[in-house]
Here is the input.
Amino acid sequence: MSMNLNTQAGIKAIQLEKLQAGIEELQSSNLFYKSRLHEVNSWNDFYDLPFLTKAELVEDQQRTQPFGTNLTYPLGDYVRLHQTSGSSGGRPLRWLDTGKSWLWWTGLWANHIYKGAGITSEDRIFFAFSFGPFVGFWSAYAGAERLGAMVIPGGSMGSEQRVLAIKELEPTVLCSTPTYALRLAEVGAQMGIDLSKSSIKKTLHAGEPGASIPSTKRAIETAFGASVYDHTGMTELGPTGFTCSAGDGVHFIESEFIFEVIPIGADPDPRSTQSEGTGELVVTNLGRFCSPLIRYRTGDLVELSRNPCSCGSLFVKAVGGIQGRVDDMFTVRGINLYPTQVEEVLMRYSEIVNFQIRHEKIRHMDEVSLLLETRDGTDKVVEKVVLDLRHSFGVRIDCKCVPSGTLPRNEMKAKRVVHVQS
Amino acid sequence: MSMNLNTQAGIKAIQLEKLQAGIEELQSSNLFYKSRLHEVNSWNDFYDLPFLTKAELVEDQQRTQPFGTNLTYPLGDYVRLHQTSGSSGGRPLRWLDTGKSWLWWTGLWANHIYKGAGITSEDRIFFAFSFGPFVGFWSAYAGAERLGAMVIPGGSMGSEQRVLAIKELEPTVLCSTPTYALRLAEVGAQMGIDLSKSSIKKTLHAGEPGASIPSTKRAIETAFGASVYDHTGMTELGPTGFTCSAGDGVHFIESEFIFEVIPIGADPDPRSTQSEGTGELVVTNLGRFCSPLIRYRTGDLVELSRNPCSCGSLFVKAVGGIQGRVDDMFTVRGINLYPTQVEEVLMRYSEIVNFQIRHEKIRHMDEVSLLLETRDGTDKVVEKVVLDLRHSFGVRIDCKCVPSGTLPRNEMKAKRVVHVQS
Here is the structure.
């Protein structure tokens, strides 16, 4: 295989070659794909393949318990079992990896995600999360092991213990969700420990769009006196993207995946996808044929750009990272908004430590309001925020302050939108 | 090096050879050992080396923060940072591993601990604990990865979720502390799920002596309908022993450590240690010269036997595993007892789900009583237990029942002895 990643044509050739080899294997031994796929000899053949949705995966795993039929090898060949966090709603998906596909995961971490952030074997990385069945945490950890950095597992600790561990063990990198990084800084402040003066030089995030939302990114940068890096990935797909030195989005790893976009909300023709522009991200996995996804509708909202990047990478860039989940769009008096857009406005205010979008149906009308948790517990900032939201989106959104510590916090993803039954 | 493990003399030759090579390295580059050690050319040279205590390690780490001076290589060569659980009292010890010493850890798991229990790459292992800084959990996990078994990380889950995960994901092996295995069975029963009918065929334990205490072992066997295996180890030392097919104790891995015993409580002469008999275990590490321990007084109470074992191993056996901590001995009206002896009597009663030893000074007199938590919340069993304790130890020990769910439970080590201030 000629691994020429220096031209777009070279990248496309590599993609097609990997795809062909993989699909041939699937057709012979993967029950889930046997009937869905045909031989692929050209890009036109590829565009004739059907989309795949999460609902189909869930249904398959419910029909064939416990792991479904998307298994290319005998069960004994699989060495890891992970589950989705379930945060996208519904039953968690279970996903199995072989030794080979796990090496592929950890290689993407070592060679793309950590490398993109300039993290090396000289770094000491603190992992501020528990190690449950969610794969993202494990792959970040295993990738750091592969990199040869010093790893410090922060599972089974409360936030105060983690602040102390950072102070005492002097890690150079913090790995966590963006929300939880801000939470740690908040706990540190309560303990009289200023984490902006800690040994942390870089923070690396996942699980939520935050680290690519400019104002949230700045808030983390300020809280830790550190450079902030995002990365993207899904249990079903693997690690898909990383922040480069340009810092304005996420490069998707086109040597290991094929990325396409389709218009939001439509029932689009698989033949008419785009390779750039705004829409729902569709991904094909080229490195995990033990349980692969071919043309998977991710539900993620992205803006793909092929403009040259200052970092020199030819990989397509998701401007501003994952901009939200397609299903998370909500409407305020006719204006369509995503939680990430609201977050971008709110996180400009250092007074605001947390927020929640409340969606309510009142007399068949959609009503949206915001709950804000402020650092000092007062509502001094509210008037300014309402004005700012109005300037940004052209509509008035009601805001209400709640006492400090009211909104739920955890080390996993923050729940930004709450649908209230009335 | 002639790796002849088929004779006692062969094992001793291997030990001496590894020790000589290691000590030479320490003398040139390990600050902690530089002044403590001399060249070792014979066993007599070895017996002239001083003992090392935990207090000395703690003091060294306090003097030179954060990792102390027992580092043979530059800090950049170390890739993992772990801490002791702190359950033996005092400040947790921090311990660093290099890539090479971590491979040594995981090799001992794959080639001795899992192998001793007949666990293979065909098994599916559920890890019922969170992955904090405590090394035992991580090494069990990494050893299973090395073995090629399927690993299911059960961190970040409550006990009910874990019971459901066992039911749905069908693991063949459960890895946990012995106390927590019994706790899971208890939670399962409350949920109407009988774990003795689950897919679990073997359970593997550490952290507490339980799995080598006959009545506790039987209780776990009954609760899971499974074979129960113990293993021993310490953060500072690594994994030291495993249960073999004979099932009546733990073989200490003499190809990787030197084991000695000294009398309890004395200030013994380093020249007069024994290679069998009852006393405090003293261990020298031969496979982790990045931060080794030479003639380390473990504080563990053992009975070492060199009688031939039915499993064929020549490695010395700790009869009944680790029988307790030397410091945990308590006295009831002149009779010396260890918590493990009390546990052996109490766990014969299926009515008892948990217990605690209360140690109180009343008018300068030591008073000991037991709190028992019974399955049905009643004290029907108490009279029988008091009689049984009296027959076993020749003294009356007061027992009191407490309501179901009163005594603390966690997934780590159970706190068996409570010293009450009065």
User: Anything to note?
Assistant: Chain A has two domains: 1-325, 329-420.
